[in-house]
Amino acid sequence: MTEPFHLYRPKGQLCPIVASIPHSGLVVPEAITQTLHERYQRYLPHQDWHLDKLYDFLPNLGITVLEATYSRYVTDLNRSAKQPFFGSFWKSVIPERTAFEQPLYQTSPSQVQIAARIEQFYVPYHTQLESLLNQMIDRFGQVYLLDLHSFFGPITDEVCLGNRNGKSCSEFLLSTVESEFSLRGYQVARNKVFNGGYITQHYGKMPHVEALQIEIRYHTYLDPAQLDQTSVPDWNVPAFDLAKRNFEAIFSQVAESCLRYFATTYE
Question: pTM of the prediction?
Fold first, then answer.
């Protein structure tokens, strides 16, 4: 069985940043696939396409990366594991419908199957994430958590930064990330629709953790002509290559700024 996550540790100097990519996975176990309506056995919409490839440079910058392998339709790692476990795409850990309110299942999962999914796919990711944050706190006294996502709409801003309206991270972290994206010409919004999901909210409450959600619009790194198709968009396109080069420069500066800040604040 495929492991529930990939963990990529930094190469070179360690930076006090952990990146979480909870919606990057596309794997759906065959037993679950067979319970879906036929159209969704071939394609599941509204996923964070190819962020694993877009951000694969992060460990080279000293950033620790935790990346999901299973689809958000198996269990949504950016939702609270509370009742109802099976329900709204936007609120439940296992979605009953797509983001567009289309029913997913021919045969809904049983309570036993729902509990098994949470135990098998959800719990290991969050256990590992909390462990990584605590390791960083032990090492640095403080840690920054960047929760990385992408979106189609409803806003047209290219980047949306969410810190629960100022509750999950400092102005330093928010403005540092914002300014680096802006310097490279990206239209950036703060807490506009996407103000931070469960991961940002939950871990942003931990002592010595600052959490920031970073949402990238699909059109910023994918081919817009492919986004209305019922198939996974290609990543081997010019827009992807350009975005990746820009993002590597952006996150390199963010990492350097965080290291400088920590050197003067916590040591």
Answer: 0.96
